[in-house]
Amino acid sequence: MSSRLVGVGVGPGDPELVTVKGVNALRAADVVVVPVMDTGERGRAEATVAHYVPAEKIVRVVFALNERTDRARREAAWNAAGRRVAGLLEAHTCVAFATIGDPNVYSTFTYLAQTLVELVPGVAVETVPGITAMQDLAARSGAVLTEGTEPLTLVPVTAGAAVLKEALAGPGTVVAYKFGRQAAEVAEALAETGRLADAVWGSALGLPEESVRPAAELDGAPLPYLSTLIAPPRRDGGRGGKL
């Protein structure tokens, strides 16, 4: 029987936001891989998984999670991680990979799965969806993500401030991920497009250091890398005005 690789979304950080299906998948797996940076500190995925499975079942694998400029180093790290997980799949029937948020939304799991399909012929790849940071921030801030016919646009600010400005100039709600290091550019883009007043941002959601603040308070100082922004459109016309 072929081995199984299961990407499990464990939410944005609050261990209570892991789905029942996610918990069951973590517990059913022979081992649970958690990604760590080469600096070795415990990440959010590992901290969340530790609430549900014993420590001896958790396997830490180094990924170049913060590497965006040195492609050779990033590729080497992905290949090394792939070989490590391939070894686990040869020794076990089911290996779970825990990822913050959802495994199909800007997740390291995507690259790992692509690598392992080549390294382990016949491996079955599955995913278990997880709650995303934008959903959690909407709940904690009271921001409504969409109404009626409004579109929803998700932008990683690592793609550049110009991409964010283009999205903000359009209709519907804009969600920005990973904008902490470019907080000044984000504040400027919000002001230029008239989106500043109703926008909110948050970081470390569900953790002791959580911060959920109005975007109008952005002062240009750098924020945590994984900060999330929600910028709703202007909603006139009362209840059902966007239907």
The gross shape turns out to be: elongated
The profile of the biggest β sheet is: 5 strands, parallel
Q: What is the CA–CA distance across the termini?
A: 51 Å
Helical percentage: 25-40%
Provide the structure class.
alpha/beta
- Secondary-structure element pattern, one letter each: EHEHEHEHEHEHEHEEE
- Arithmetic mean of pLDDT: 90
The proportion of strand residues reads 15-25%
Q: Order of strands side by side in the largest beta sheet?
A: 3-2-4-1-5
Number of DSSP strand runs: 10
Supply the number of helical segments: 7
What would you report as the Rg, rounded to the nearest angstrom? Answer: 19 Å
Which oligomerization state do the chains in this entry correspond to?
Answer: single chain
- List low-confidence stretches: none
